[in-house]
From TrEMBL:
Top-level division of the source organism's lineage: Archaea
Transmembrane segments: 15-39
Keywords carried by this UniProt record: Membrane, Transmembrane, Transmembrane helix
Entry-linked InterPro entries: DUF7266 (IPR055690)
The keyword Membrane is annotated on this UniProt entry: yes
Protein name (record): Uncharacterized protein
Any one Pfam family match given in the protein's UniProt record, by short name: DUF7266
Length: 155
C-alpha cells in the first residue's frame, strides 16, 4: 500500500534533480563566458606582440635601406614578414606623421584585421616617406632619390 508521502517524495526528488541540472547549466555557461573573455583578451595581446615584432623588424629594414640609399644609390630590401598574425591578416601603413610623437620623421602603423588596437612603430630616416598601406606578408622597401616606399614583394 502506497501512502501519500511516497508520491510527494518522488515529486520532490524530480524537482531537486531538475533544479540541480538548471544550476549546473547556469554555472557552466558562466564559466564558459568567462573563459571566452579571457581567451579574447589573450588573443588581443598576442596580436599586439606579433605586430610589434613585425613592425620593429620592418622599421629596422627601412632604416637600413635609407642608410644604403643615402649615398645616392638606390636600394631594394626584401622583408619576409609573415602573411598573418594570430591567424588573421594585417595591414602595414607607412606614415609621414607619427601621431604627435616628437623627434621621429615617420612611423609604421600596423593593424590586424578584426582587432581594434593598432601598433605604431617610429622610424628615423632622412628620406621622404611615401605614405601608403600594404597588406602584411613579404614586402620590399624601395629607397631611391631620397624617397622610401613599401611595396608588396612579387617574389
Amino acid at each position: 500500500m502506497i501512502d501519500g508521502h511516497g508520491a510527494e517524495r518522488g515529486v520532490s526528488m524530480t524537482i531537486t534533480y531538475v533544479l540541480a541540472l538548471g544550476i549546473s547549466a547556469a554555472l557552466l555557461a558562466t564559466l564558459l563566458a568567462g573563459a571566452g573573455a579571457v581567451l579574447e583578451a589573450e588573443t588581443e595581446r598576442a596580436a599586439e606582440r606579433s605586430l610589434e615584432t613585425v613592425g620593429q623588424e620592418l622599421a629596422g629594414e627601412i632604416e637600413a635601406a635609407d642608410r644604403v640609399a643615402g649615398d645616392g644609390d638606390a636600394a631594394v630590401v626584401r622583408v619576409d614578414a609573415p602573411r598573418t598574425v594570430v591567424e588573421t591578416g594585417y595591414d602595414v601603413e607607412l606614415r609621414q606623421e607619427c601621431d604627435g610623437r616628437p623627434g621621429e620623421t615617420g612611423c609604421l602603423r600596423l593593424t590586424a584585421h578584426g582587432f581594434e588596437d593598432a601598433v605604431v612603430v617610429p622610424i628615423r630616416t632622412e628620406a621622404v616617406l611615401e605614405t601608403g598601406t600594404v597588406p602584411g606578408g613579404p614586402l620590399e622597401v624601395v629607397a631611391a632619390d631620397g624617397r622610401l616606399a613599401l611595396e608588396v614583394s612579387e617574389a
